[in-house]
Design brief:
With 313 residues, the protein is an alpha+beta fold. The protein is built from five helices and 15 strands. Helix 2 packs antiparallel against helix 4.
Length: 313
Amino acid sequence: MNNKEGFMSTDNSNEEFSQPLEKTVETKESLIAERIATPKDCEGHFGENFSIVPAFVVSRWLAEQVEAHETERENQICLPNKINMKFNRMIAEGEKFSLTETKDTKTGLFSMILTKENGNMANKTTASVEEYSTNIFVKTLELPDFDISSNTPDQKIIKTSDDIAEIIPQGENIQFIDFTKENDNPNVLLEAVHKITIDDFTNAGKDNFRFDTAKTLEGFGQSAYLYFQEQINNPDLLPFFAEVDIEIDYHIQPKVGDEIYYQLTKFDLNGRKKTSGLIEGVVLDSNKQVLATYSAKTRAIKKAALKKIINNN
């Protein structure tokens, strides 16, 4: 798994996502990769009119870079477990950008910077790195002996998958929550559920499959967007991440057919126009163990203004 080519997906099912680099240069300080954002990178985000690289794809790139360039021992894998992502500008479909990665030899922190062709920094992500045994990952992706599309009878559904599809602006292929349900805990503002499928895994070495935790960032964002629209009821406003702090426990590996639960625990909007705020939440596995925690600073902007930013940033 010590792949030194860089900026490549370890998920063999996503060949379109893993386009070859136009140029790769290694230095003592960093690895620089230059490429163009593909339609697969953008995943239809935010739908037909806005095609940008979403935060969860940047998170996935980070995991792939850490795995490729930090993993050194057989049957081991290095992954980022505590992550800070800062978004300064957006990368649009068809746009050239470069990736620079560095490692602080004193702190051990791994950094990845995405820079647009005009020299403007789009994103800086910094993470601590931990080594894991590949034995913790799923060995085979087998379908369960029950219908994973059916809802658990005791769950009181609020919004179905079809309801959600009409609300969120993301493309159909990246709707990572299946329904929202009632939760009696007063500290939980909204709870959303996703049933794990084979598509939720990425290859993690020979006969090992790792749950793609990057998808939980998008699922968390979609849960927050549903709550945002419940409170604001203004489909013309699109909220997006300005900064995200993430903690991931890779020892928790859901299986195909399991449910994971997004629990939004904080949603504070600032100012009269409610265009910035702070959101927090957790992702739980089927045993209610914490798979990931999220804390994010958000901004919201009108669709027309966002289109101008995409074209001019």
